[in-house]
Amino acid sequence: MHATLHLMKSRQFPPIRRKALEILQVSVGYRCNQTCLHCHVNAGPTRVEMMSDETARAIIDFIRQSNLKTLDITGGAPELHPTFRYLVEEARKLNVHVIDRCNLTILEEPGQEDLADFLAEHRVEVIASLPCYTEAFVDQQRGKGVYDKSIRALKTLNALGYGKPDSGLPLNLVYNPQGPSLPPPQEKLEADYRRELFDHFSIVFNRLYTIANMPIQRFGSTLISKGQFETYMDLLVSAYQPANLESVMCRNLLSIDWQGYLYDCDFNQMLGLPLHYANRPRTHLTELIGKDLNNNPIVVRDHCYGCTAGQGSSCGGALV
Q1: pTM to 2 decimals?
Q2: Does residue 77 sit in helix, strand or coil?
Q3: Most CB contacts within 10 A, which of 82, 97, 189, 250?
Q4: Which top CATH class is 5-308?
């Protein structure tokens, strides 16, 4: 695995600061049932990092004492981790909106037979990875057979009401480019997804989010191996749009790793760039309970151009 952080210090991304905190994005661990080429987390079946019960309880304590609106749970495949259902149940008791970053195939894993029902019961928003609406591209990026499993999972979620108007069960899909290119316009691609998935499988969903691939971890290492890293970075920088700075996700989101340490975003977490707070080398969640991060400086490097290129890119898709 090629490291990329040392290659991200020369392009001088502009300084930015935080706004009021609204979203807590929690990575419960890096274990996953898939090994995807574009994965910025380097997740997979052999990863052993897993959140403790103590850290999960600290997260709920933090939510209870804040004005957070949303808990965004990710991984790995977050559903594989024992703390996942605890976090969902306790956050919903606090009337906090919960998002599950789902890879879809997890619904067919042993022990997850009741997962779809659990998500629907607790009114969890599902944001599901589906990097294309065609079988060839999905299996190329995510592994043979993933497309068919994903389609079956989407049908299962639809049968519970997910993606249907007025059901209160949002189902949003995520597109990632196949290689070192920017995502196409989100609105047009969403129309293509909607048409193809309905015409072929009668599948419905709410929104499609286009997300740029980040030049870090597995995808970044692949770029280096193919001699494409600098070219891709040049593409991101050349497509930079200053207007995207106003709404990048690090402005109102806080990222927490499986040990409870804090980062401005999930990408910084994967690069080992901790939140800058009170000159600490790194800050634990328990040290920030009751504290205000508004106007705190955000740690930036050249990979931040991935969020501000073109239409922009965030966990909620294009910014403009």
Answers
A1: 0.93
A2: coil
A3: 250
A4: alpha beta
